[in-house]
């Protein structure tokens, strides 16, 4: 693996359930890089859950905090960074990610995403709604934007180890 890979952050983008956090953690381990999860960092910085931030302050406020947290992480040492599904859709956040990282879109089919998002605690966009319908709508709007990532890797196959290996191959 070229040493230069470890000099930039690697940012994982894609829809809810695409495996960004799980795959990101394993990839970081494999590469000997630090790992961060933007959703967790936002919750820590705000001292409240993502669902509470959405409920109390609205999505726009969440996107502001998300951009600040991602900017801070990208300014520090190189990380493998898992982002929330909407981060890359925000124009300013996307510009930061594209400029300062190697950005990978984890792409999966709707059925796989639905299956993986059955646990919805930090996913206010799915709360009380039909996950299949929401994810279908989001995919339609967002996939052309995720396609602006530097690299696209399918994360539809399980186990996640396959995807980690596919990413390692892309990087080599
Ligand atoms: C969101 C995805 C979530 C979380 C928030 C909004 C989105 O992250 O940031 O609920 O807009 O797609 P995951 O992709 O980790 O579920």
TrEMBL record:
Positions contributing to ATP binding: 17-22, 123
Keywords assigned by UniProt, alphabetized: Amino-acid biosynthesis, Aromatic amino acid biosynthesis, ATP-binding, Cytoplasm, Kinase, Magnesium, Metal-binding, Nucleotide-binding, Transferase
Superkingdom classification of source: Bacteria
Location(s), subcellular: Cytoplasm
Residues annotated to bind Mg(2+): 21
Entry EC no(s): 2.7.1.71
Gene Ontology terms for molecular function: kinase activity
Major location category of this protein: cytoplasm
Amino-acid biosynthesis is among the record's keywords: yes
Cofactor(s) essential for the protein: Mg(2+)
Reactions listed under catalytic activity: shikimate + ATP = 3-phosphoshikimate + ADP + H(+)
Residues the entry annotates as binding substrate: 39, 63, 85, 142
The record's free-text note on cofactor binding: Binds 1 Mg(2+) ion per subunit.
Pathway: Metabolic intermediate biosynthesis; chorismate biosynthesis; chorismate from D-erythrose 4-phosphate and phosphoenolpyruvate: step 5/7
Function: Catalyzes the specific phosphorylation of the 3-hydroxyl group of shikimic acid using ATP as a cosubstrate.
Subunit structure: Monomer.
PANTHER family: SHIKIMATE KINASE, SHIKIMATE KINASE 1, CHLOROPLASTIC
Family: Belongs to the shikimate kinase family.
Full protein name: Shikimate kinase
């Amino acid at each position: 693996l070229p040493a230069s890979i470890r000099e930039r952050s690697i940012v994982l983008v894609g829809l809810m359930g695409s495996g960004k956090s799980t795959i990101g953690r394993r990839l970081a381990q494999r590469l000997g890089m630090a790992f961060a999860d933007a959703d967790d960092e936002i919750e820590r910085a705000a001292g409240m859950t993502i669902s509470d931030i959405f409920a109390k302050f609205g999505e726009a406020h969440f996107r502001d905090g998300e951009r600040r947290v991602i900017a801070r992480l990208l300014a520090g040492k190189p990380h493998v960074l898992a982002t929330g599904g909407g981060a890359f859709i925000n124009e300013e956040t996307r510009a930061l990610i594209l400029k300062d990282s190697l950005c990978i879109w984890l792409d999966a089919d709707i059925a796989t995403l639905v299956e993986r998002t059955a646990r919805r605690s930090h996913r206010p966009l799915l709360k009380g709604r039909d996950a299949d319908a929401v994810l279908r709508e989001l995919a339609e709007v967002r996939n052309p934007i995720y396609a602006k990532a530097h690299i696209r890797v399918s994360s539809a196959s399980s186990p996640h180890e396959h995807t980690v290996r596919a990413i390692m191959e892309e990087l080599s």
